[in-house]
Amino acid sequence: MLADTQCRNAKPKDKPYKMPDGKGLYLEVKPNGVKAWRYRFELREGGIVKESLFAIGGYVTAPRGETLEEAQARRAGGSFTLSEARDERAKARALVKQGINPAHKRQLDRIKREQEGATTFDAVAKEWLAMKDWEDATKARRLNMLERVVFPKIGTLPVKSITPAHVLDVLNNAAKKNGLTVAAEAKRTMSGVFELAVSTLRADADPVYPVRKALPANKTQHKRPLDQEEIGQLLRDVEGHGGRHETIAAFRLMWLTLCRPSEAVEARWAEFDLDAAIWRIPAERMKKRKEHVVPLPRQAVGMLRALQGITGHREHLFPHRDNRSKPMVTASFRQMLNVLGWGGKYSPHATRTTGSTRLNEMGFASDWIERQLAHTEVNTVRRTYNHAMHVIERAQMMQAWADMLDTWKTDGNKVIPIGKAAA
């Protein structure tokens, strides 16, 4: 067995040489003066006994007065005294007896440490968000929610250490300060983040699941279809709002075409052929990543021709109030609706639900309606063979829809027999 004096006084030679300590451990002295601990062992792999080498680390003498924390840091850096090298040999021998290669075990431990270094909740959440095939604006809104509601509570915690109690605290706080809708969004988002963490072995379970029903259901019917009277009242209220002309125009375009709120506010002039009364929304701006052709009723064409004199020289139909090179944001709709007293009763997303419901009542073909809403056919056979865009039929349908909107807005509380619109 070696003595520490021998290790400390070993001098380099022209070629590397070994100083055995026993049980496979030896000190290798290299020509450049480096002294390194090595452990030689035999391991059966695939029925064959193979000899392998495990590099423990470099030789060092412990500094005088070294603290426990300093010694741990030194060993983490790969420097070991004689007695510490023997301890590492004992650990390695125990692994070999279990059929485990200590070099492979150390490599796995390193990978786990690297993963744990990037496993705070906020790191995994941003990774999850980056993987989503969403519009940049959608990602920005979701990140904003995380930064306001979730990260202050659990953002810096290792994702593996977060418990259902942590999640429940986030949800209760969100419901109290931001409402049930935001709390529900936080719950869905956190569950998605934990799903990624579990699938990448950075967490053992989704702590959202045990508390998923802890909050009362959100009873606000933001997406229920509006009836005729409500549609008429909403359109009259918006028309008399007196706010930004661009906000009102974007809102009208959304209702006249039943497009998504983001598709309306981010519309570009290059997408429109007003002579042909067609709006082609490019694939990158669509939820399903497919170009969507939207027929425009006369009311929409007239409104947009008038708008050209105001914003036609810019890229977007509805420029942002503060930065005219960017489009307005959907939050402008919510702000307007809150001022008008419609907040909590209706959200812009309910426009499409309303349109679908009323167009079906008006007797139009469901294929036309689904195509207008850019929905994907659920039936795979129908989706394969039904490639028709029904542009002509949809143009007739949307003209009838626009005319009916005018009627509901003009006639106030007078109920119009809805089935007659399709005639």
From TrEMBL:
SUPFAM superfamilies: DNA breaking-rejoining enzymes. InterPro entries: CB (IPR044068), DNA_brk_join_enz (IPR011010), Integrase-like_cat_sf (IPR013762), Integrase_catalytic (IPR002104), Integrase_DNA-bd_sf (IPR038488), Integrase_DNA_bind_dom (IPR025166), Integrase_recombinase_N (IPR010998), Phage_int_M (IPR053876). Gene3D superfamilies: 1.10.150.130, Integrase, DNA-binding domain, Intergrase catalytic core. Coiled coil: none annotated. Residues 119-198 form the Core-binding (CB) domain. Keywords: DNA integration, DNA recombination, DNA-binding. CDD domains: INT_P4_C. PROSITE patterns: CB, TYR_RECOMBINASE. It holds the Pfam family Phage_integrase. It comes from the Bacteria. Residues 221-403 form the Tyr recombinase domain. Belongs to the 'phage' integrase family. This is Tyrosine-type recombinase/integrase. It comes from Massilia pinisoli.
